[in-house]
Design a protein that fits this description.
about 400 residues; mainly beta; 5 helices; 26 strands; disordered C terminus
Length: about 400
């Protein structure tokens, strides 16, 4: 079901660009069907309104990543910076601003990560990684890269990054560390290039797929789990860059992907458009593993309802590490106003949306909901953890 976007009240102090509108169906009852299990149970843990101020408002969120302490880092394309909020929603720090100097972004990228006491954030123009002190927000260095990273993954002292590097025959992975980046930046060392894992065939042969569906997701532990936005499988990659396993993602409610030949032909740039690609395939929007190795994904099915408006649904799936059982495609509840931004921290899924609020001066508030994805329970249901009734619900039962 879709509806028209509502008109925002005029803002006195700033203008928000909310160019998308999204309606998704709440998954409140299990779905039945043949073949795969239904999706994992999602348990809403809490919902936090970000305490935006004149200096820390969220204009156009395009990405989010979560710190080890539960801090919420929001990448804001409108203000060209990253804002850190505490788990309680209160602002903690700002990173970067628009510009071309140290710690400034020509166009803030869609990738960021916390590595110890440093925050790493990609910049599109020029392709750079900007480094900031986690606590003070001060710029501490930068390093040039062959292409802007689409994702970061941090494990121990290593930072893995993913991108589509034409200069290295479409290799997609690079690895470094914060000390190496700081030294490289200080010495104006050669650009970091992507040396591992050639992109899947559709990305090699079709420029439209690279441009519109060029997102990549990483989860790094003892190996690297890689997901390409327009690919039906995940790849396990060793620290030497070799592929050790392929994990095919089952489909139940979302569109899925056509086979490679059909996809490449359908997306011929001479005959197709961005709109056709978006409505043809499910795109991977989130990827994570928990401490037990269970895998979690978010996919998006979208289409242009008009040249100015996108409608979409989001689907959450899980794969058990011990058995390979997949819980497939629980619909994620979403609201009307803007395209949601999602981020995982292990088996926790964070969803950022902007909501209308007549009580606010600009008429909009940013809300982050936190779900537990219960890999042990394939019900396709979305439940609410009502505090006091079952606090700390995890894995199908109340604690104690």
């Amino acid at each position: 079901m879709t509806t028209d976007c509502v008109q925002l009240p005029p803002a006195r102090r700033r203008v928000r660009y909310l160019v998308t509108c999204l309606i998704a169906t709440n998954a409140l009852t299990p779905h039945t069907g043949m073949g795969q299990s239904v999706g994992p149970t999602l348990i809403l843990q809490d919902s936090v309104v970000l305490a935006e101020t004149e200096d820390t408002y969220v204009g156009k969120p395009i990405e989010m990543f979560i710190g080890d302490d539960g801090s919420i880092f929001v990448v804001d394309a409108f203000t060209n910076r990253v804002i850190r909020f505490g788990g309680d929603g209160h602002p903690i720090q700002l990173y970067g601003r628009h510009g071309a100097g140290p710690g400034e972004f020509g166009l803030v990228g869609t990738a960021g990560a916390v590595a110890g006491a440093v925050v790493a954030i990609g910049d599109h123009y020029p392709p750079m990684i900007e480094l900031f002190d986690l606590d003070s927000g001060d710029a501490v260095g930068s390093v040039s890269v062959a292409v802007t990273p689409r994702a970061f993954g941090v494990w121990q002292d290593r930072i893995w990054m993913a991108g589509l590097d034409e200069s290295s025959d479409w290799r997609t992975l690079a690895v470094s560390s914060v000390p190496e980046m700081l030294i490289a930046g200080a010495e104006a060392a050669p650009t970091i290039r992507f040396e591992f894992l050639r992109a899947p065939r559709p990305y090699l042969e079709n420029a439209m797929i690279r441009g519109v569906a060029g997102g990549i997701r990483l989860d790094v532990k003892d190996d690297v789990l890689v997901g390409f936005a327009a690919s039906p499988f995940l790849l396990r990659v060793g620290t030497d860059g070799s592929v050790t396993d392929t994990v095919f993602l089952e489909v139940r409610n979302r569109r899925g992907m056509p086979n490679e030949d059909e996809f490449i032909e359908a997306m011929d740039p001479a005959r197709s458009s961005q709109e056709e690609l978006i409505k043809l395939a499910s795109l991977l929007r989130g990827l994570a593993r928990d401490g037990d190795g269970n895998i979690f994904t978010v996919h998006q099915d979208a289409e242009f309802a008009s040249p100015e408006r996108i409608v979409a649904e989001f689907f959450v799936s899980s794969i058990r590490a011990d058995s390979g059982v997949q819980c497939v495609d629980t619909r994620l509840p979403t609201h009307k106003l803007s395209m949601p931004v999602t981020a995982f921290r292990g088996d926790e899924l964070f969803v950022l949306e902007q909501h209308l609020d007549a009580g606010r001066e600009d008429g909009v508030k940013a809300v982050v909901r936190r779900y537990l994805v219960d890999v042990s329970s394939c019900t396709g249901m979305v439940l609410v953890n009502r505090h006091g009734k079952c606090p700390g619900y995890r894995h199908g039962k109340c604690p104690g």
